[in-house]
Amino acid sequence: MRRTPFLAAVLFLLSGLTACEEYVPVPKPRAFPKVVYPEKAYAPFDQSYCHFTFDMPKYALVEHDTTFFGEKPKSDCWFNISVPDLNAKVYCSYYPVTSRARLDELVQDAFTMAQKHNIKANYIEEIPVHRQADRVHGIVFSIDGAAASSYQFFLTDSTQNFLRGALYFNGQIQPDSMAPVLSFMKQDVNRLVESLKWQ
Where are the beta strands (DSSP E) in 24-135? Predict the structure, then answer.
């Protein structure tokens, strides 16, 4: 009989302690925007102002560059591959190779442009490209971190042609939220690199 009042007192104290807890609302973490990816499909790039071809996404648009900072580009074969649905562009510039010194200068410029992103980059991976049968050689720069351009490349046949490209997104780079979109676009750039053929 003496245990019943003691047990009732303990239960009363415990219920009083739990009743004092206040509900504190906690905001939900910020969500990443939903991205609807287009279905992967490719078509040949065959613009008459360029002397090469490659596979480009069917959901992309080709924008011919006719001015460069108010001046005429150094070649008629300057263009952008725009993917409006993902707010992305691959800026491409072509240069004729006129000498070994000119090729060395173009390669050095490509390395310099990639290294300019080193301030915000955690790491830059240089992926070599060597397709002897198609006379396509170069490097893909995969830049990890909050760099403005996370993927760049240059391709050349070492004697006549040099093509440089850089992937940009129109907006502030948030590496975590952009990772899936970047991965999607890297596939398209890799397809360009793997399918390029000089004409």
Answer: 42-45, 52-57, 61-64, 78-83, 88-96, 121-131
The set of residues, in sequence order, having a beta carbon less than 8 Å from that of 142 and lying 6+ positions away, is 124, 125, 127, 150, 151, 186
Give residue 68's pLDDT: 67
Distance CA 153, CA 15 (A): 67
pTM of the model: 0.79
Secondary structure class of 125 (helix, strand, coil): strand
Among residues 136, 137, 168, the alpha carbon closest in space to that of 152 is found at 168
Percent of the chain with pLDDT over 70: 80
Could you give the CA distance from residue 96 to residue 175 in angstroms, rounded to a whole number? Answer: 35
Domain ranges, ordered by start, for the chain: 42-198
Checking if the pLDDT of 11 tops 90, the result is no
Topology given in CATH for the domain delimited by 42-198: Protein Transport Mog1p; Chain A (3.40.1000)
